[in-house]
Amino acid sequence: MAMSMLQMIESDHMRFDIPAFRIGDTVKVHVKIREGDKERIQVFEGVVIRTHRAKMGATVTVRKVSYGVGVERIFPVHSPQVERIEILRRGRIRRSRLYYLRKRVGKAARIREKREATKA
Amino acid sequence: MIKAMIGRKLDMTQVFSGDGAAYPVTLVQVGPCTVTQVKTMEKDGYKALQLGFGTKKAKAVNRPMKGKLDKLGKGYFEVLREVPIENPAEHNPGDQVLADVFQIGDRVDIIGKSKGKGYAGTIKRWRFSRGPDGHGSKNVREPGSTGMATYPGRVIKGKKMPGQKGNVRTTVLNLQIVDVRPELNLLLIHGAVPGSKNGIVIVRSANRA
Q1: Edge-to-edge strands of the sheet including A38-52?
Q2: Residues of chain B with pLDDT under 70
Q3: Hey, what domains does chain B have and what are their CATH numbers?
Q4: How far is B181 from chain A (nearest CA, A)?
Q5: Residues A27, A75: contact at Cβ < 8 Å?
Q6: Which residues from chain A sit within 8 angstroms of residue B13, using beta carbons?
Q7: Using the beta-carbon criterion (under 8 Å), do B184 and A8 form an inter-chain contact?
Q8: Contacts of A53 (CB under 8 A, 6+ apart)
């Protein structure tokens, strides 16, 4: 079937270079930061606790604990400000929103690593 | 060249500018429009272009319309709309108007028919505030007093009351064009435009930029 106008326009603006991360994965998000007229890359490393799948408006929430303070950032996945996203570790999780991590600290906030399926 | 076209509101989405700002945009398919009639001061008493947009099956066209459009020989249009212009002499029936009359950054006005909301109360229609829900209140969504007492002894004209909301011609001024795709006859317009998806709108260069 032919693409609708909407799909055509969105596919022009979407990022297809972003890897398929999932909830529970530990990722590094490289974000472009503008300071005056200089631009640099900042890396935000943490656990994906939520994804909002909305085509062009898709976002991902990444949580990390920085100097004992929990920090969550929401990134628009298709934004040109996101330089790239790296997947460091796949997590094995049992729900789609990991809000329970907010109440946990230290060892209790760990996520088990997903074992990759081995071919028989 | 005129800067006004008939279009169809398609859908809304979001695009990013180079510096990462997200723009909510409406996709409007504009044209190709064909000039179906030129209205002149001498003949019609006012200056305007009549434009045709879209296609219609031959069997769906009524006879007066068929006669008019057969003379032109450009097929049958779904809608005809008039747009006022300054200089009718520049245009001839049969001329095409394409999306490339608009440029990125242009300001445009969009005229369409807003979504109908039916017979609506004063809260929805005029943003009146509501009364208390509890404490025995029966004044929950009532419009309140409509006026004074013996003097003037009538309700003042124009008093905001319940009635039909929406489904009226609506103009939104000074919307910016984010992108133009002449090959798709498509405009990306910053913000929302009146009406439902697949509704007919008129896009014209902003009058009061």
Answers
A1: A69-76, A59-66, A38-52, A26-35, A82-89
A2: 1, 209
A3: 4-120+174-205 (2.40.30.10), 121-165 (no CATH)
A4: 9
A5: no
A6: 6, 9-10, 55-57
A7: yes
A8: none
Percent of chain A with pLDDT over 90: 60
Q: Select from B25, B29, B24, B27 the least CA-distant residue to B5.
A: B29
Smallest CA–CA separation between A56 and chain B, in Å? 6
Give the three-state DSSP class for B68.
helix
DSSP state of B95: -
Average pLDDT (A77-81) is 92
Residue ranges of the alpha helices (H) in A2-120? 5-13
The two structure tokens encoding residue B143: 């419009």
Residue from B2, B11, B4 nearest B195 by CA:
B11
Residue B168 neighbours by CB distance under 10 Å: 10
- ipTM of the prediction: 0.77
Question: CA–CA separation, A45 vs A64, rounded Å?
Answer: 7
